[in-house]
Amino acid sequence: MNRQLLILFAVLFCGPIGRLANAQNREPTTPSSIRWNEIPTVPTDQPTLHRGIVIGPDGSPMEGARIFAASTIEFAKQRQTDASNDLGKVRAVTDSFGRFEFHAPDLTWQPTPETRKRWETLLVATKEGLAPGWITTWGQDRGLRSHHHPTRTKKVAIRLSRPTSVRGRLIDADANPVQDAQVQITAVHVPGKRDLDTHVARLRGLTLFSSVPSYESTFSRPAQLPGIQIEERTDANGEFVLKGVPADNVVTIKVTHPEFQTTDLTVAARRMDDIYIAPNQFDDQRRLVLLGSGFTHTLAPGVTVRGVIRYDIGLGVGSPVAGATVAVANHNAADGMSGRHYSTDADGRFEITGLGPDYHEPGYVIAVAGSYQTPIESRRFTVHPNRENRIEVRAAVPYRLRLTDQDGQPARRDVYSIVVQQNPDEIRRGVTDVFDRPKMVAPGIYEGILPIGPGAVIVQRGDQRDRPIAVDPKSFFEPGRTDWTAAESVFSYGDQWQITQPGVITTEKLAPYRNRPHRQLDMAAVVFRDAESTSPPLELSARIIQDMPPEVHLVDDRGESVAGARMTRQSPQNSKKDLPSRFPLPGLHPERAEFIEFQHEDRGLIGFIRATQSTGPFEVVMKPAATITGSFVTSKGQPTSEFGAMLSGAVPPDSHLGNFIRDTPLSPKGRFARRVAPGETYSGQLVRRRNRQWYPRPTIGPAFEPVTPKPGEIVDLGSITVPD
């Protein structure tokens, strides 16, 4: 091991280096083909290669540490779906210099047959007798997601810690011990620069207006960290011990007990005095910030609500609903619920314990959720303590979806179901913004529920190669109908670009998103159903088709390659910037053409294509952009933002012009300006805005005569007077 490695260890970890010096004079105890001697960064030119160093608690290399690896995206999905805690196979074992190196093709993806890219990856290191460590490494865009952290230059060095125990005692308001409380670690935090002393000092200096110091990293699924005891119950003295916690880290623990408020506590894995923010003019109570191991904490009494859930059958009393999930509603949570989840018994009864007074105005808002086994509509209800709350829910229809790829093999994607909107501006109440998210019960097998009436099971594109769907929802739900109004043409069921669902009220604090579109460009498959209340469990199937993306070559009008352009697509998450001159263009349909625009801001160039999968490869000639500008004014000459124009020409569908409400680089406030491709003809139809939307309002006449701008030309349409 060379001197450069020694210096890097000393600078980065400030730990003893005596063992490193000794290691320099000995051969590895196991054969190794590793030849590098520096703390590595991600090898960006070798997407399957992962390499790094594991450091022990004293700063020296750690031999014999086991390395696990997982995609951070799949890891997050598993956390949301309560999947197995297994980290998978051991990828490598460190040599006597603490180094590891392995190839993982399964942690990459291929946008083209010739190209392979790496995923953002979680690396976990474990060693018998020590607490585990982890690091997240850089990855490229994958599927329809992007990664902005960590950086390419991040050093891949995983630090193991000595294990310690987090201890505590829980008591009630009369100082009596609380026995049989469940204590669970829900997150492990590494202080900034791995320096708990500095972290604690900053916390002690907190005031009402100062910010809490951030962590270097957080592991939010500690059950996957081997060797850490994440759960315990208090004994007769109210005490608990959680073993194997990384020393000098911070943990978040959740305390639950039927008689006390569910409580989250932040605890240092070290004995120390507890830290509070002192009372102030806004809060006459001191606020707990951090507890030290060995703490004693007083739990506040909890509130219990009870009720019974039955099916809504209109007249009369429906049968009880067994197996429904009940919890406190939380519109910010992925499943619309927070805290412990409860299930109704055979008589439809439930009991939620551990509630605090902060929910109780005018009552506690709970969420009731259905499933394949208990097919009911998920809804929110307000309940009250000290009474039996009677809740009625409507039935839903269970389905089992078999999802395969084009070779008939089981496929895994994000799947959800929605209510398909029949009429514009419909509103419904729900627990989340979609009807249901099914569970994957076996490879390619999903079990969930659909609404009674128009509904859809949607399969999201999860790979760049997934072909988007192109369907007409109207022809399924109302075949043959043609007398659609302007609003109905888009918002009733949807159109060729989207499937529309009603606005969903998930909290009274926020207005619902009316006429919410689900873009077909983002879907790999969809199954429509107009289910009846008497429908038996539905057996559905869907197939994902993949295409190799055609290549795009951007050139200027002299035929020279253009790099650094920005691409705008009809689905915003597919748009890109800083493009190379040649690149693959995934996500096209073989028949429905997508309008795609390219601009190079620094050179003032613009180009476009209307592309299908079957028409590539593409050479896009970018020319000096033209600009259409002007202003919409009232009969008194005042700029107005109430009117605009639907623009036709070489622009995406449903493009509009409208006065800017603030200054922009293109035009000042009160005017509009839009860069367009030269040599194309553009026209506009006046439209009046409603509910912040231009489309699909009926047009009310031409806004301006057709124009065909030349390269670099600025076409000023002047003041366009709108109707009174």
How is this structure best described in words?
The longest helix is centred in the first third of the chain and has 11 residues, at 3-13. The protein folds into 6 domains: 3-159, no CATH class; 163-298, Immunoglobulin-like (Sandwich), CATH 2.60.40.1120; 303-393, Sandwich (Immunoglobulin-like), CATH 2.60.40.1120; 397-542, no CATH class; 551-624, Carboxypeptidase-like, regulatory domain (Immunoglobulin-like, Sandwich); 626-721, Carboxypeptidase-like, regulatory domain (Immunoglobulin-like, Sandwich). Strands 11, 12, 13, 15, 16, 17 and 18 form a 7-stranded mixed sheet that branches. The protein has a 7-stranded mixed sheet with strand order 40-39-42-43-44-38-41, with no helix packed on it. It is mainly β. The chain is globular, with a radius of gyration of 30 Å. Mean pLDDT is 89; it is low at 1-31, 79-84 and 142-147. The protein contains 6 helices and 51 strands. The termini are far apart. Helix content is 7%, strand content 41%. Strand 46 (643-648) and strand 47 (656-658) form a beta hairpin.
